[in-house]
């Protein structure tokens, strides 16, 4: 029986979005004649922009954890009133007066 994937499961983000599997990588490297990703990067990325150390990144999160993290950050937002253009009619009147004065 054909089993359809449950698209509502949100903790499998990495399986759906993070690159090819090891077998696919090996096949691609074999196709272009390179023995490893490090060799490929060494041949294509200039040495002057190579990082000399590993990135200091936090542990990964699944979608559920990340959405909760975003909600936490978003809850700190503050809503303010915007008064830009509130009484632009006076500004237009002043500009028109200056234009008329400069023409006379």
Structure summarized in a few sentences:
The protein is built from five helices and no strands.
Set down the secondary structure blueprint:
Blueprint: H1 13-17, H2 22-32, H3 37-44, H4 63-74, H5 88-103
What does this molecule look like?
With 104 residues, the chain is mostly helical. 50% of the residues lie in helices and 0% in strands. The protein is built from five helices and no strands.
The H/E string reads HHHHH
Helix/strand class: mainly alpha
Question: What is the CA–CA distance across the termini?
Answer: 89 Å
Helix count equals 5
Are there runs of 5+ residues with pLDDT below 50, and where?
Answer: none
* Number of β-strand runs: 0
The quaternary state of the protein chains shown equals: single chain
In percent terms, what proportion of residues is strand? under 5%
- Average predicted local confidence, pLDDT: 81
Q: How much helix is in the residues?
A: 40-55%
Shape: elongated
Largest beta sheet, briefly? Answer: none
Radius of gyration equals 29 Å
Features of this protein?
104 residues; mainly alpha; 50% helix
């Amino acid at each position: 029986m054909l089993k359809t994937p449950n698209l509502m499961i949100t903790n499998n983000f990495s399986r759906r979005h993070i690159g090819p599997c090891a077998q696919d990588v090996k096949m691609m490297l074999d196709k272009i004649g390179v023995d490893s990703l490090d060799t490929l990067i060494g041949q294509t990325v200039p040495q002057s922009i190579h990082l000399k150390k590993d990135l200091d990144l936090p542990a990964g999160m699944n979608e559920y954890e990340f959405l909760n993290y975003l909600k936490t950050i978003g809850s700190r937002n503050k809503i303010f009133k915007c008064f830009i253009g509130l009484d632009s009619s006076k500004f237009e009147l002043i500009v028109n007066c200056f234009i008329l004065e400069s023409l006379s």
